[in-house]
Design a protein that fits this description.
Shape: globular
Largest sheet: 3 strands, antiparallel
Protein name: SET domain-containing protein
Distance between the termini: 45 Å
InterPro entries: SET_dom, SET_dom_sf, SET_domain_protein, TPR-like_helical_dom_sf
Organism: Hymenoscyphus fraxineus
Number of strands: 16
Helix content: 40-55%
Strand order of the largest sheet: 5-1-6
Strand content: 5-15%
Radius of gyration: 24 Å
Structural class: alpha+beta
């Protein structure tokens, strides 16, 4: 007897090149992380964790369904299996995003697959059916490929008509995949162009010849007497939302802008690097794009892009028919207005039900405008809903909103993002938020006071207090 916990891969991986590549990178990550751990043993066909019920990770990813063990009882406690489950889960989420489905029977959560399916997959680990994979463990899955050897196997640099250079997917990239993470060559804060030129010249002198070449090869939309400043203004990306500090990245700065992006950039303040995650599935041959700023209506976006980056946008969101463009502008105006209303602290205190309804409306609009690819904005809205509930003592709803914010953050920022970890910590313990019951206890509930037996529509009505 005991409590099982772990994660499932949903959907399971295929034998295709993309999934093989992703699984190989994941296995390499696991091997590197546990290279000095005597409880982790590399077997011919899998990695064995000598803890708990000895969970395993096969070298052939298409066979994998579940990584789990009993996490209660003397064996679990003596071998610290819970720590292995948690760490492997975190690493897996970094590589596979929303495909990783976590569960813990202690919280009445259960895996996707039946145990007979899982046991059959475990037995298949013993007999390899892909000799090439086994003979190349620890080696690149695509041999003699210089792009992969540089760690950029998911994309390649190509000329984009009308946009100069850009990054294009070399393989199909699943939603939630971390495409690249990169530290800046250097950063700079706001300063006059004349001062910035001297500052950048000093920074460049301290870089290697290769790093200097990378910077100088970037496009300059502001030519003139301050060439370094022009390159910086054209390419620099803010180190986090609202930050006055911007950075130059040798690869990420080559990603072009779109008002309807298929990837999201986020700054990891702990690791000190920028990350790019796919927020929708990206087909091989499709350009990878990000949004350089939060945006607004089409005319506002064009003006800001021209002023700050020196170009006009011709993305799919800016070249709609006049009727569709006006409809998009109307949605984005409503999104901005709702976002402002949701953030009104006085309204949150005095009329929380209306604030929560605005969160619901905002999420629906984000879905309609961005076709399910506005994870960062959606995550922030779910966190706003969390705060509305928690300040009035409603832990049940707050926990659900924290979980939704967490899942959205995993997709667009990864498991290791401070924002993701913050949301995750509030799922099980929403009462730890600094503003718990700060306004009132009119909605007071405990975390486990969730309604049972509701269908999806009825649950959403309960969650957002849409009841008549």
């Amino acid at each position: 007897m005991g409590i099982d916990a772990g994660f499932d891969m949903v959907p399971s991986l295929s034998k295709g090149a993309t999934d093989r590549l992703s699984w190989g990178q994941f296995i390499d990550h696991i091997k590197e992380h546990y290279k000095d751990d005597n409880q982790v043993e590399i077997k011919p066909n899998y990695i064995l964790f000598k803890a708990g019920e000895h969970p395993r990770l096969p070298f052939e990813g298409h066979k994998f369904l579940r990584f789990s063990s009993k996490v209660s009882g003397s064996i679990a406690a003596d071998t610290n299996v819970g720590s292995y489950i948690e760490t492997v889960t975190r690493i897996a989420q970094t590589h596979f995003g929303s495909r990783i489905r976590c569960w813990n029977e202690g919280g009445y959560e259960y895996g996707t697959y039946k145990w007979n399916e899982v046991n059959e997959s475990l037995r298949s680990y013993e007999q390899p059916d892909d000799v090439e994979t086994l003979t190349s463990i620890g080696q690149p899955l695509i041999r003699n490929d210089p792009i992969q050897e540089m760690g950029t196997a998911l994309f390649e640099l190509k000329h984009i008509p009308g946009n100069g250079r850009g990054l294009v997917a070399r393989v199909d990239i699943p939603k939630g995949t971390r495409i690249i993470y990169e530290k800046p060559l250097f950063t700079a804060g706001p300063m006059p162009a004349s001062e910035l030129e001297g500052f950048l010249a000093t920074k460049l002198k301290g870089l290697s010849k290769e790093s200097q070449r990378q910077f100088l090869s970037l496009h300059n939309n502001f030519p003139g007497k301050n060439p370094f400043s022009g390159i910086f203004k054209t390419n620099a990306l803010h180190c986090g939302f609202g930050s006055l500090i911007s950075g130059i990245y040798p690869t990420i700065c080559l990603i072009n802008h779109s008002c309807m992006p298929n990837a999201h950039k986020s700054w990891n303040s702990v690791e000190g690097h920028e990350t790019i995650h796919a927020v929708r599935s990206i087909k091989s041959g499709v350009e990878i794009t990000i949004s350089y700023f939060r945006g607004g209506t089409s005319s506002e976006r064009q003006a800001e892009l021209k002023e700050k980056f020196g170009f006009s946008c011709t993305c799919s969101g800016c070249t709609l028919s006049p009727y569709s463009l006006q409809a998009s502008d109307n949605r984005r105006t409503r999104i901005r207005n709702l976002d402002k209303a949701v953030g009104d602290g006085v309204r949150m205190m005095n009329n929380p039900r209306e604030s929560l309804k605005d969160c619901y409306s905002l999420i629906q609009l984000l879905e309609e405008e961005f076709d399910g690819c506005a994870q960062a904005l959606t995550a922030r809205t779910y966190y706003d809903a969390f705060q509305i509930c928690i300040v009035h003592g409603d832990q049940a709803r707050a926990s659900v909103f924290a979980e939704r914010a967490y899942k959205a953050r995993v997709i667009c920022e990864g498991e290791d993002s401070p924002n993701t970890q913050r949301a995750k910590s509030l799922v099980l313990k929403p009462e730890l938020h600094n503003n718990f019951e700060a306004y009132s206890v009119i909605w007071k509930t405990t975390r486990i006071m969730l309604p049972q037996g509701l269908d999806t529509t009825e649950f959403e009505k309960w969650l957002f207090k849409l009841e008549n």
